[in-house]
Amino acid sequence: MRFNVIHVYGLGSGIVKMFESAFPEREIRTLNGKEELTASIGDIEVLFAFRPPRGLWSGAKRLQLIQTIGAGVDSVLPAPDLSSTVRITNARGVHGLQMTEYALAMMLVFAKDLLQAIDNQQKKHWQWPSPLSLEGKTCSILGMGTIGHVVAERAKQFGMRVIGTQREPKPSIHADEVLPPEQTEYALREADYVVVTLPLTPQTRNLLDETLLSTLKPEAVLINMARGGIVDEPALANMLRAGRLRGAVLDALAEEPLLETSDLWTTRNLIITPHMAGGVPDYLERVLAIFIENVRRLEEGKSLRNEVDRERGY
Questions:
Q1: So what's the pLDDT on residue 80?
Q2: CATH number of the domain within which 67 lies
Q3: Are 83 and 118 part of one and the same domain?
Q4: Which of 26, 59, 121, 236 has its CA 20 to 30 A from that of 282?
Q5: What one-character-per-residue DSSP string does the chain give?
Q6: Which residues contact 296 (CB under 8 A, 6 or more apart)?
Q7: Are 252 and 289 in a shared domain?
Q8: What is the predicted pLDDT for the residue at 13?
């Protein structure tokens, strides 16, 4: 079996040369919107996609592989109209180090009271802030997957106590405790810093609602670098405004891009970044390497790298 045409969705035509170099002697077709994807759906065999949409897969009679550009596949799943024979693979393993750097950077922003220091500088006001140390603090990681394990390892290097949650808990040399999701409330109650690295699934959607968020210490910091939709953003903002939480970071939001009219922009002690935690200059090349390998494996009838369990959603 050989796939002579490679379809690329949602990345624009500027990447054609990169894909032509990766797949010499094959045709590269770019699809720049849902209408183009729908029009070509019956011809697609393998698809490299940025946030593939739902609801148009019944016509994908030749489709065998969807490679997503990110780790999350919540844009396409659940997909009852997608044949069970279609394989889905993701970019798991590409994000670990840079997302860990992001998480630790944000912890340090609040530990060293840098928001106050920057505010003082803008006001030309010389005032000693209230710096703290990460050593001895508790970092609770919701989602001890590939990324969560790297966060745990580096947090331990800072002398932190680490609690993780995992669907099927497995002991980790980098965590003091690894708990089932049913003990999320305990993990939140113990935390000085919470790092969210969960996939967005029906089980995790709106998981951190007002009730669970209220279990956090007033001096705690919440960092969501997973998916919008996991955290109840209005409830989080209300807690910050009321001084019931020290700070929060949202790299993933329920609505992206965030509207200019959103009150989140002006919420005190809330840092908002544009879904950048996993970004590096060669990100696309790293994911493309996974795709190249998976196309080869599929053609040779071998198991795929980073195949998604469609029942679990990750």
A1: 95
A2: 3.40.50.720
A3: no
A4: 26
A5: ----EEEEESS-GGGHHHHHHHSTTSEEEEE-SHHHHHHHGGG-SEEEESSPPSS-GGG-SS--EEEESSS--TTT-S-TTS-TT-EEE--TTSSHHHHHHHHHHHHHHHHTTHHHHHHHHHTT---------STT-EEEEE--SHHHHHHHHHHHHTT-EEEEE-SS----TT-SEEE-GGGHHHHHHH-SEEEE-----TTTTT-B-HHHHTTS-TT-EEEE-S-TTSB-HHHHHHHHHTTSSSEEEESS-SSSSPPTT-GGGG-TTEEE--S-TT--TTHHHHHHHHHHHHHHHHHTTPPPTTB--TTTT-
A6: none
A7: no
A8: 86
Q: Does residue 126 sit within a domain?
A: yes
Which of 187, 192, 213, 224 is CA-nearest to residue 111?
192
pTM of the model: 0.93
Structure tokens at 137: 């603090």
**Structural domain that includes position 226:** 96-272
* pLDDT score at 283: 95
Length of the chain: 314
Per-residue confidence (pLDDT) for residue 111, from 0 to 100? 98
Q: Which residues contact 25 (CB under 8 A, 6 or more apart)?
A: none
